[in-house]
Amino acid sequence: MIRIAIADDDALCAQELRRYIDDYARESGHRFEVTVYSDGDELVERYRAQFDIILLDVEMPFLNGMTAAEMIRRQDPEVILIFITNMPQYAIRGYAVDALDYVLKPVNYFAFSQRLERAIRRLGRREAVYLTIPVKGGTMKVAADDVYYVESLGHQLIYHTRTGNYAATAGTIQQMENDLAPLHFFRCHKGYLVNLNHVDGIRDGCALVGDAQLPISRAKKAALLESLTAYISGVGR
Amino acid sequence: MKDVMPNIPRILTALAEWGSCLLYICKYQRRLRGWRLAAVLTLSLAVQCLFLHFTGHLPVALWIPCMAVAVGLMFLTILLCGDMSALSAGYCTVRAFLLAEFAASLAWQLYTFLAGGREWAGPASALLFTAAVYGAVFLVMYRLEPKPAPPYPRLSIQRGELWPTLMIGLACFVMSNLSFVYANTPFSGNYISEIYNIRTLMDLAGVVMLYAYHIQHRELQVRRELDAVQNILQNQYVQYRQSRESIDLINRKYHDLKHQIAVLRAEPDAQKRADFLDGMGREIRDYEAQNKTGNSVLDTVLTGKSLYCAKHGIELTCVADGALLTFMSVMDICSVFGNLLDNAIECELRIPDKKKRLIHLAVFSKKDFLIIRCENYCPEPVNFRSGDPVTTKEDGNYHGYGVKSMRYTAQKYGGTMTIEAKDNWFSVNILIPLTGQ
Lengths: 237, 437
Fold this sequence. Notes:
The complex is a heterodimer of chains A (237) and B (437). Chain A has 237 residues and is of the alpha/beta class. Helix content of chain A is 32%, strand content 33%. Chain A is built from 7 helices and 15 strands. In chain A, the strands form 4 sheets. In chain A, strands 2-1-3-4-5 form a 5-stranded parallel sheet, with helices on both faces. In chain A, strands 10-9-8-12-11 form a 5-stranded antiparallel sheet. The two termini of chain A are 21 Å apart. The model of chain A has no long low-confidence stretch (mean pLDDT 86). Chain B is an alpha+beta fold and 437 residues long. Helix content of chain B is 64%, strand content 10%. In chain B, strand 4 and strand 5 form a beta hairpin. The longest helix of chain B is centred in the middle third of the chain and has 75 residues, at 192-266. Chain B starts with 9 loop residues before the first helix and ends with a strand. The model of chain B has no long low-confidence stretch (mean pLDDT 82). Classes of the chains: A alpha/beta (237), B alpha+beta (437). At the A-B interface, helix 4, strand 5, helix 5, strand 13 and helix 7 of A face strand 1, strand 2, strand 3, strand 6 and strand 7 of B.
């Protein structure tokens, strides 16, 4: 069940969007729960991150879409925002609230369904994967997303994570590279396997991950940039 | 040629021909891989050896057609294994053939000189010795041959470039073998050692000439490519200047109009007219507000392209933080966005259903990276060759520079570009690290 909110002061337009969602549900087999608001303030008032996707009209009399989006973003960094507008010059600033898509009014079904499809695909990517790290006296379960990078120190693997550093009692970096291949991890150096999600920047041949600077081997530089491009542009839809 | 020194066993010639084909197949991108490649190469070795072996004792009149067939076999091997056009394969064949002639001739001359009359001489040692010489010759040639430049490791030879190669190859072949066919010409040698010398030296001259020609051809190609990339840059810049001018003109017109509206509004009568004028004023505001991304160059490029899109029923949407682009030069912004949108527009124009003509451009930052992404709906499958899409334009040799030019610009700023086609959407992603820009 995918929960969608529509906020639009134009009842006809909201109705049309609702019909499009129904058509799309029939076409794709997805199931939706749609809630309609007639203004931004209604949506924001009791917002508790209860939606997956929000379709927002940019121009509404009481609380306009851009301001509503800012307020929603403060509470919910995950929800996918799609503006609906006939004034693209406002939606062009959507990047400020991480709304990288918008639909132009009058809404054409094909364009709308394509956008919805991509938003849904992005939803599917969010499921958390956990890693089990063998440590002294037991195992640790850590979300893969919380791992900043894995370091190979001598014969030991050190996991640098959001909750602290763990020294694993077994495993090799090569093995971890293979295991984590389906996730967004990249071996930027003989001794480092980095989570692309935590690469904040690249400077002087080093990947910046939190406070750490991981060396990038010369041979891996181009491949790292390409993986980063694919990862970041895949996530930031 | 009534001499004690026998001519090269045909099987050794076959080996040289096959080996030099292998050299050119290794050097360029291959069509076949793994066991298929191995199978074709084994088959070609067997055919080449058998053919040359069984045609070894035919009369001189049949020798030339047989040689032609042998060259044809080499051509087939290269064409089958290498990912190249027939013209390029022909070019490689000529080079491979002369190299094989040279290697075979050199090896045999060395062998007969060193092994003449010694007890270790025999078919097995001849084979070992020649194989070693071939290996050395091919290795040197492989090292000398310039590396094909990524991301286009393909050889691209035009008809006009094949002719001189063919001529050089043919001339060297004729001169080097003249003495074997006709002993009675001004250029024929009379002594067997002299004949061998002529052959080896002529073949060497041919190999060197073709090598020199190849190097020059390659340099020309690189220069031509650079010119084309520069041309594209220049083109997008000229377009930018033109739309800048026309947009300025429109802006001035609108400005005048605004003054007229102000004057009209000063007239105290007619409520309706005031309403009408309000409407007009609003429209002008809409126009003025269009494409304010925070970067005037991007605004201009976008406005120009969106006018074109509107005319052709393409829905162009854009989310762009132009302020991020300040570190890029005007030329580069024009070239990157102009090419991105031109490529997307070209693809959309081929979609008959206007409702499906969609382009979405996004410019944003994530962490310390600038991302430029252009996506367009593209229902037809896209073919890729080493990471870049194969052009859909007729003459493949002169296109694909738009993509090259964008990649060149991304790399200039320490970034990279990737292209993918997935779920009916074609997207070009450019990432540039913002740290240190």
